Structure prediction request, 200 residues.
Amino acid sequence: MSKPPPIPINAAPRTSRWLMALPLIGFIALAAIFWFRLGNSDPSRIPSALIGHPAPQTALPALDGLVNNGVPVPGLDPSAFKGKVSVVNVWASWCIPCHDEAPLLTELGKDTRLQVVGINYKDSPDNARRFLGRYGNPFGIVGVDGNGRAAIEWGVYGVPETFIVGRQGTIVYKMVGPVTPDNINTILRAEIDKALKAGS
Prediction:
């Protein structure tokens, strides 16, 4: 009677090889889902849980030394949102995309149908004033968010971000990332027009 040939030590059964590969296959599948859902999409379309909800009732102090025509620019009082369509921009002087969008916001600030509100995020007053002196100040209101708490309440992912608040004080739109020549008319102004028509 002949003996069967010896089984090599490194020859594992096929089923155990598949079982060992399952975690890797699962990881690749999850990575693909995240890539197609998040990595390959437009970050400005990230939804906000606050849309349809009242704007945060966070009062913010004024930016020290900021004046417009000799009059101090006020800080953010949440009651300022009632009865007006507002564009709220979260910005900082150290934010490079904020420099790119500043001239577009300055132009937008000339639209008398709405008010443009700035939330200055974790910035120094001197740098913030220099920033506005360089590009022009589109903001009728500038609130200082020195510790970042207001940004958390607004659900900010990172600066810059822009919100539209309707006449009822409700957030109706959020743009993640900078205002650009490509999106200011096709997206932002279109959403502003919707908000203006909704309250008229």
About this structure: The chain has five helices and seven strands.
